[in-house]
Amino acid sequence: MAQGLFITGTDTGVGKTQVSLAVLHALRARGERVVGMKPVASGCTLTAAGWRNDDASALQAASAPRPDYHLINPFALPDATAPTIAAAHAGMTVSLAPIVAAYRGLADEADRVVVEGVGGWLAPLGEGFEQADLVRALDLDVVLVVAMRLGCLNHARLTARAIAGDGCRLVGWVANAVAEPPEFADEYFESLRQALPVPCLGWLPFSPGSDPAVFAGRLVVPA
Predict the structure, then answer these.
(1) E strands within the chain?
(2) Which residue, among 89, 62, 84, has the nearest Cα to 54 in the 3D structure?
(3) Which residues are within 8 A (CB) of 147 and not within 5 positions of it... i.e. 6 or more apart?
(4) How far apart are CA 160 and CA 165, in angstroms?
(5) Catalytic option among 25, 38, 149, 155
């Protein structure tokens, strides 16, 4: 089975998809066969091919080889809200087995699989189904995306402790500027660099609309 990376965040809206795409491009630049995956995606649009999520479609487009959509996003939920709520509204049950099967299908064709989580680390994937359950089942390394803004010190340190407490491997973190750099941004970064138990893999600047491939060179992805 391919070695996998799980991209989580300190909260929703911190740029997990942007970082996941940059990681995909960085690995492809090293000559690896790498595919993206978003097992559970809320906020989907009904198309002729079925329900589709923009983030999952972006991961599919950045993958090489490019797998079928249903492997990248086994659970496509229409409502743009927490997965447990979206699944309840859709009359669906999000469970581990279909995600493991889809992951194995992706891993059979790739050197690496980059798996994007939902919201923050403790946002459940389904009723009684935590993101940590998926990470442990697939034996994934975890990368934490930290939005560089007021509050990031608390959110990042709490999340790192939660990941360790759940028995999962945090291997690095990425600083992501989700808005114009706030006052004291450099001090926030240095405080995080000293406080978190794993290395920073890169700092992505605020650049709306930029090609994620451009950010790949700013990351040092674990070998």
Answers:
(1) 3-9, 34-37, 40-42, 45-47, 50-52, 75-77, 112-116, 141-147, 169-176, 200-204
(2) 62
(3) 9, 10, 11, 13, 14, 15, 155, 176, 177, 178
(4) 9
(5) 38
Q: What token pair was written down for 15?
A: 């740029």
Distance between CA atoms of residues 42 and 44, nearest Å? 6
Check pLDDT > 70 for residue 162: yes
Residue 146 has pLDDT above 80, yes or no: yes
Instruction: Give rounded-to-5 percent helix, strand, coil for the chain.
Output: 40, 25, 40
**Taking each helix axis from N to C terminus, what angle separates 185-195 and 152-165, rounded to the nearest 10 degrees?**
20
Q: Is the pTM of this model over 0.70?
A: yes
Which alpha helices (H) appear in 79-208, and where do they start and end?
83-90, 96-107, 131-138, 152-165, 185-195
Distance CA 201, CA 173 (A): 6
How much is the CA Rg of the chain, to the nearest whole Å? 16
Q: What are phi and psi of 42, to 5 degrees?
A: -95, 145
Is 16 considered catalytic here? no
Tell me if 79 sits within 8 A of 43, measured CB to CB. yes
Residues 45, 47, 49, 55, CA torsion sign? negative
**Domains assigned to the chain:** 3-216 (3.40.50.300)
What is the rounded distance in angstroms from the CA atom of residue 98 to the CA atom of residue 104? Answer: 10
- CA distances for 155 relative to 17, 165, 202, 208, angstroms: 19, 15, 18, 23
The 10s digit of each residue's pLDDT in 83-137 is 999 999 999 999 999 999 999 999 999 999 999 999 999 999 999 999 999 999 9
